[in-house]
Design a protein that fits this description.
By secondary structure, the chain is of the alpha/beta class. The chain folds into three domains: 3-130 and 463-488, Orthogonal Bundle (Fumarate Reductase Iron-sulfur Protein, Chain B, domain 2); 135-236 and 391-459, 3-Layer(bba) Sandwich (FAD/NAD(P)-binding domain); 239-389, 3-Layer(bba) Sandwich (FAD/NAD(P)-binding domain), CATH 3.50.50. 33% of the residues lie in helices and 18% in strands. The chain is built from 18 helices and 19 strands. The chain has helices at 3-9, 21-24, 38-45, 64-72, 76-83, 90-96, 113-122, 128-131, 150-161, 178-181, 190-202, 219-225, 254-262, 280-291, 314-325, 398-401, 437-454, 465-478, and strands at residues 142-146, 165-169, 206-208, 228-231, 237-238, 251-253, 272-276, 296-301, 329-332, 334-341, 347-358, 367-378, 382-385, 389-390, 406-407, 410-411, 424-426, 461-462, 487-488. A five-stranded parallel sheet has the order 3-2-1-4-17, with helices on both faces. The longest helix is centred in the C-terminal third of the chain and has 18 residues, at 437-454. It starts with a helix and ends with a strand.
Length: 490
């Protein structure tokens, strides 16, 4: 084995530092994870062997070896350019990505791909000085984007680069959708959101906030005024469980709770808080409750710890560890029976059963079945349900919503990202099952090409030469195919 390869294999992952739990759990603005220094980033990036297996784990198929190895060489501008061929939010991604790419890394301690992306983005307060917004001549075509989340803004940015006039409508008063109102600022600071929103806005994208399509502006007017429409509407509707007593005071859905907290609105709540659910939203709600002054926070989940959403991805593990460090207590395999209220409607606690995990005989996921012989009680005065959310298409006129093919709660789209209604495209949480940031970006990239084809606008695709070379190496050594996207020149 070559000496340099042995050196790399023995090269341990450079740890990322975190703020002390006792300090951070009292401060919304204190970021939990701290970034790499230049020396740390270059050292960590130098572990990358360039095999390209990581690409298989990335929904957006970023050229990960390309930008990581550029960091190792100290070529930070080149690294940023490579990232932004497919991703207009490098610093947001560097903070919150589920980084499934790292699960495919050949190392037991994978290369810290997400943290390296964050490092590179932090080096440039204004990306436009590196990228210079290479817009093509205006085509005279116009596209409306409904929803200012990651899928919608990916579409808006890259279409703008191709000379398409893009206008974004969003019902929220702030940009970036759930990234802004659903993810706490200790995970995703406001300065990062503002930086990357301003970059896209300055590229020439128009925005209208506090604007509800179907109410403030008729959907029919948008259809008449634009050549194509992209729906990046997410899953913004919270689904309550209907547990008896859920009409009590201080019972919230997590989406409403987090939205109010992130917008700085007052949230009446007590000191003992129960979170129902076990996913990322549940963790965010629990840690937000601590920062709002809760003295005790419990998370009640109907399955086992290893069954929670996102497990066993590194992101799910990290969030779990950080939540435990901050003092949140977990109760696994729990089914609430009733939210107990007093005569004034105030919550006093939760009656619940414990569950056993039972096979349904198919060999699939074990199902939680309540053991009803014994009831238990936990004293709480505030309940936050983080148990489900759905897509709201009620703003669409009947003739459109009836023609829109759905599968359950998801809008169906073809290989171009177009729905069953010609000229209407969609992407993000309303169309995919993964419901994560980087998948929304991937959906946006697919729709960009689909819209350009639909509008008959010529676009040049360029080969990712280095990535394709790595793909060949991987295929020859493992027999596996690693596909790289064609990327849009910016």
């Amino acid at each position: 084995m070559p000496e340099t390869l042995i050196y790399r294999l023995n090269f341990k992952r450079v740890p990322i530092k975190s703020a002390p739990p006792d300090q951070r759990k009292k401060d919304f603005k204190m970021q939990v994870t701290l970034g790499y220094s230049k020396a740390e980033a270059m050292r960590e990036a130098s572990r990358c062997m360039g095999c390209g297996l990581c690409i298989q784990g990335c929904p957006a198929r970023l050229d990960i070896p390309g930008y990581v190895q550029a960091i190792a060489r100290g070529e930070f501008e080149k690294s940023l350019r490579i990232i932004m061929r497919d991703l207009p939010f490098p610093e947001i991604c560097g903070n919150i990505c589920t980084h499934n790419c790292e699960d495919n890394c050949v190392y037991k301690e994978p290369v810290a791909i997400r943290h390296l992306k964050r490092f590179v983005a932090e080096q440039f307060p204004d990306y436009s000085k590196v990228l210079e917004h290479k817009r093509r001549e205006k085509t005279g075509r116009k596209v409306a984007i409904i929803g200012a989340g990651p899928a919608g803004l990916t579409v808006a940015y890259y279409l703008t680069m191709f000379g398409v006039e893009c206008t974004v409508y969003d019902a929220l008063p702030v940009p970036l959708g759930m990234l802004n109102v659903g993810i706490p600022k200790y995970r995703l600071p406001m300065k990062v959101l503002e930086k990357e929103y301003n970059f896209i806005k300055n590229a020439g994208v128009r925005f209208f906030f506090n604007t509800r399509v179907g109410k403030d502006i008729p959907f029919q007017d948008i259809m008449k005024g634009y050549d194509a429409i992209f729906l990046g509407i997410g899953n913004m509707k919270g689904n309550m469980t209907g547990t008896p007593g859920s009409d009590g005071k201080y019972v919230y859905h997590a989406l409403d709770f987090l939205r109010k907290a992130n917008l700085g609105e007052e949230i009446p709540m007590g000191k003992k808080v129960a979170i129902i659910g076990g996913g990322f939203t549940a963790m965010d709600s629990a840690r937000t409750a601590l920062r709002l002054g809760a003295e005790k926070v419990y998370v009640l989940y109907r399955r086992r710890a290893e069954d929670r959403p996102g497990y066993p991805s590194g992101n799910a593990e990290e969030e779990m560890e950080e939540t435990v460090e901050e003092g949140v207590e977990f109760l696994w395999k729990i089914t609430p029976i009733e939210y107990v209220k007093d005569s004034n409607g105030m919550i006093r606690g939760i009656r619940y059963w414990k569950n056993e995990m039972v096979s349904d005989g198919s060999g699939g996921r074990l199902k939680p079945v309540p053991i009803k012989d014994v009831e238990f009680f936990i004293e709480v005065d505030t309940i936050i349900e983080a148990t489900g959310q759905s897509t709201d298409i009620s703003f669409l006129p009947p003739e459109i919503s009836k023609s829109l093919k759905m599968k359950g709660n998801e809008i169906l789209v073809d290989e171009n990202g177009m729905t069953s209604v010609p000229g209407i495209f969609a992407g993000g949480d309303s169309t995919n099952s993964t419901k994560d940031f980087i998948s929304a970006v991937a959906d946006g990239n697919r729709a960009v090409k689909g819209i350009l084809r639909y509008l008959k606008i010529d676009f040049t695709t360029l080969e990712k030469v280095e990535c394709n070379k790595m793909s060949q190496v991987v295929k020859e050594s493992t027999g596996k195919d690693v596909k790289c996207n064609d990327y849009i020149e910016i």
